[in-house]
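Hi F.,

I've been meaning to write this up properly since the lab meeting, where we talked about keeping a consistent format for the predictions we share between groups. The idea is simple: the sequence comes first, exactly as it goes in, then the structure tokens exactly as they come out, then a line or two of notes. No screenshots and no reformatting. I'm using this chain as the first example so we have something concrete to point to.
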Amino acid sequence: MQKTDTMKETILVVDDSAMNREFLLDILEDKYKVIEAENGLQALEVLEEKGASISLVLLDIVMPEMDGFEVLVQMNQRGWMESIPVIMISSENAYDVIDKAYDLGVTDFINRPFDPNVVLHRVANTIMLYVKQRKLSDMVAEEIAKREKSNNLMISILSHIVEFRNGESGLHTLHIRIITEKLLRGLQKKSVISMSEEEISCISIASTLHDIGKLSISEEILNKPGKLTDEEFVIMKKHSSIGAEMLKGLKGEYNDPLLDRAYEISRWHHERYDGRGYPDGLAGDQIPISAQIVSIADVYDALTSERCYKKAFSHETAIEMIMAGKCGTFNPVLLECLQDISDELKYGI
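Output, unedited:
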């Protein structure tokens, strides 16, 4: 069955010579849809418009307006080289020219004058290779998404068990996760940290396990309506180190960044920036940033939520209390981030 234009792979031919473009068109047009560009600037305009629908670029080196090397530089900067293969076509055959082309990411190099069979075979092989790579990448991405969904489900179950025993609504861990992500993005916006989306997601998910150690605390203490005695408070404070020990056992069995972040959050989310927290009395940057963020998120949500021992404070009162140091000392930059997202917290959770 002969392919229609809509079924054919699309090739962008970039060459300032009309004769060279016509020659390549004659070779390719039976099997491929061919788009032409007379120089590098036109090529970038086509790539900007067509994007991933371009299956291959056949690119000349010496051209007016913008040469082939500058096109490759621009394609690299815009991330197009990862998904769109490039075959260099040129009469230039000096080793330094060819090396530079490969250094900039071209898949193959074809010298003029063209041999039609060579052009067809190399084009077909390059497109087939990238199609297979895309399929493999899609499969890997799908598996990662499935694993993340499973992780999220199991973590949600565990965190809801903790909240159920603690007499909470089930929204606490969701709020912590949302606030944690907002604060992480706030720090990134201020250039305090640099994290990938995967790292931000990892810390946000791990934040939901911050109170897992409360599974070991008796319900009498967890749900006591009045103030805890000194002895009961000592027992309650142990939940952070106990939760860390639970996760530490899993860390030895599973090498996963999620467990590393969950461990540090569970153990140190009650530390304070001035060193007056627990269980280890860490201060300042000794406290991992993940734990610092969850610490302030936990305090805000505790203040604005009703508990068996207290009524909920308003958003404004909670922010005022935290900023005034009435709930312990926090990283000044994190306090700035909290103020930056104050309206989002008031209307978005």
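Notes:
Strands lie at 10-14, 33-37, 54-59, 86-90, 108-111.
The chain has two domains: 10-137, 166-348.

If this format works for you, I'll send the rest the same way.

G.
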